[in-house]
Amino acid sequence: MPLTLFFSSVSGSLELKKNQDRIFFVLESKKIPFEAVDISQNPEHKDLMRKRAGNPKALPPQLCNGDIYCGDIAAFENAIEMEQLEEFLKL
After folding, report:
1. Tell me, what DSSP letter sits at residue 6?
2. What is the 3-state secondary structure (H, E, C) of 23-89?
3. For every one of its 91 residues, what pLDDT tens digit does the chain have, with 9 covering 90 and above?
4. ω into residue 61 within 30 of 0, thus cis?
5. pTM value?
6. Which is nearest to 58 in space by CA: 71, 68, 41, 67?
7. In Å, how far are 10, 54, 66 from 70, measured between CA atoms?
8. Between 73-81 and 14-29, two packed helices, what is the crossing angle to 10 degrees?
9. N- to C-terminal Cα distance for the chain?
């Protein structure tokens, strides 16, 4: 299963947009293949993201590898800082 980035193309939050852009940039620069799933286009995608995250109020961006939840932006940034991105993404 591919790495999945749940994001929203519709948001009034500048912070959310910056966090999403950060993940896109890092994954693309490291040539890590991923599927971007826009939760604003289909409510089922939002439900799936929240189910995988185990949090009914989870907000994007969220990362999963197949059916396995990896984490949110805070966990992503921590993995980069600790030089454990591949382990975090379960690659």
Report:
1. E
2. HHHHHHHCCCCEEEEECCCCHHHHHHHHHHHCCCCCCCCEEEECCEEEEEHHHHHHHHHCCCHHHHC
3. 689 999 999 988 899 999 999 999 999 999 999 999 999 999 999 999 999 999 999 999 999 999 999 999 999 999 999 999 999 999 8
4. yes
5. 0.92
6. 71
7. 23, 11, 10
8. 40
9. 11
Beta-carbon contacts of 5 under 8 Å, excluding residues fewer than 6 positions away, are 20, 23, 24, 27, 34, 35, 36, 37, 61, 62, 63
Q: Hey, is 14 helix, strand or coil?
A: helix
Q: What is the pLDDT of residue 1?
A: 61
